[in-house]
Amino acid sequence: MKVIHLSVECFPVAKVGGLADVVGALPKYQRELGIDASVIMPYFNRKFVQEHTFETVATGEFNQGSTLLTYEIIKESTDALGFPLYMVKIPNLLDREEIYCYADEADQWIAFQHAVLHYLKNHEVEVDVLHCHDHHVGLMPFLTRNSTDYKDLASIRTVFTVHNGQYQGWMPWTKGIILPAFDTWKWGLLDWDNLINPLATAIKCCDAYTTVSEGYLEELYQEANGLQHLFYDERGKAHGIVNGIDTAYWNPEIDNLIDENYSQLTVTHGKAENKIAFCSAYGLNPALPLVSYIGRFATEKGADILPRLFEQVLKQNAQQVNVFILGSGDAGIQAGIQQLADQYPRDVSVFFGYNEQLAHQVYASSDLLIMPSRVEPCGLNQLYALKYGTVPVVRKIGGLKDTVVDVREGGYGFLFDEVDADQGAETIGRAIQYLSGNDQLQKVRDKAMALDFSWNKSAKKYKELYNQLLKGHGA
């Protein structure tokens, strides 16, 4: 079985969020199951590309509207990621450094999808399943069936994964002229509220769609930025499959990015040593509980409540708590976090931006990780935290409620109901009090680190879905 994953992100090539982590790991685990899985993504002139060798495997050209575009398909020569990686390079469109935020993004993603179609058809690439990730490649299920130039690809099964249904890739109908020629009687499959909506198109046209947790699938039926009725109407081909983590990369026993490796048996000593080194570097007190946040500064992540939440935590615990915040995003949120750090210089430390090694060190050093998300389709940070013996404090939403069980129910984390600074602070206080006894902390860490959130189980579920589609039984 040959499966090609299409995505604009893939760790460590180009990453903004969890999409990259999924696409950078799932194909590797699928190959261990005997699936011939690979990734095709746009070319980005970033560190990974500059440090690795690529070979050209195909070239071609096509018209995007009245513009003739030439493309090059390059392949990473050593399969360094554990699977074949292909990149699509198009001069002046797919040859840039940044992933997002260009004014002509719609043109970029249309060109990417058109180049992939042209490559698959004209180079007779064998593929059984196209696995498309998020709205950037949401037109592919429509185009393989309805584009007049690419109907040879109509037998390919298409799976579409919704990583975040809030972002849908809306574009005006003026962009319709630059799409590959299609059967105009089918224009309604592209339309939603008088716009071309790639996410809606994918849900209408794919053979099966998946979400990155079962909880998020149920939430999409209730609220999906205007598409909730569509998700519900197409529920017959829906599957909630929780994300996993790459345990070859996120593993405190072998992680070369942390100060001291440790296992479930040596977690107390290992985390203590990492915490001492970390706190020394960031001016914090290793004798105090360390509560951290890692992520984007976005209202979607609940980051706007962090300044007040952490101020409450510090006041309620007589400043016998340390706080570390790693992230970037909304300037207003960042300003509030900086103000908090200025107000409590001995208790709060921040790093604005993203640093992969630092993220690993935070997981290895922290006692608690807070995730007050408004929307969290799956969440990976809580899974990384659990693997490193860091106890998650999370809002009861989406994939967070699917993967974290409160200690009150015999679990290994702490949950709260609303995106509310007082609730979050109270729950952190409950966690600190509960874990203050060494025996209790060890028990919770033991439960957390014994969990299996690797890609093994999820990769098997995807294989079952692919087989189901290829046997013609529908979704």
TrEMBL record:
It comes from the Bacteria. The keyword Transferase applies. It catalyses: [(1->4)-alpha-D-glucosyl](n) + ADP-alpha-D-glucose = [(1->4)-alpha-D-glucosyl](n+1) + ADP + H(+). Pathway: Glycan biosynthesis; glycogen biosynthesis. InterPro entries: Glyco_trans_1, GS/SS, Starch_synth_cat_dom. Residues 2-230 form the Starch synthase catalytic domain. Its EC number is 2.4.1.21. It is an enzyme of class 2 (transferase). Pfam families: Glyco_transf_5, Glycos_transf_1. Keywords: Glycogen biosynthesis, Glycosyltransferase, Transferase. ADP-alpha-D-glucose binds at K15. GO terms for molecular function: alpha-1,4-glucan glucosyltransferase (ADP-glucose donor) activity; alpha-1,4-glucan glucosyltransferase (UDP-glucose donor) activity. One of its GO terms (biological process) is glycogen biosynthetic process. Belongs to the glycosyltransferase 1 family. Bacterial/plant glycogen synthase subfamily. Synthesizes alpha-1,4-glucan chains using ADP-glucose. This is Glycogen synthase.
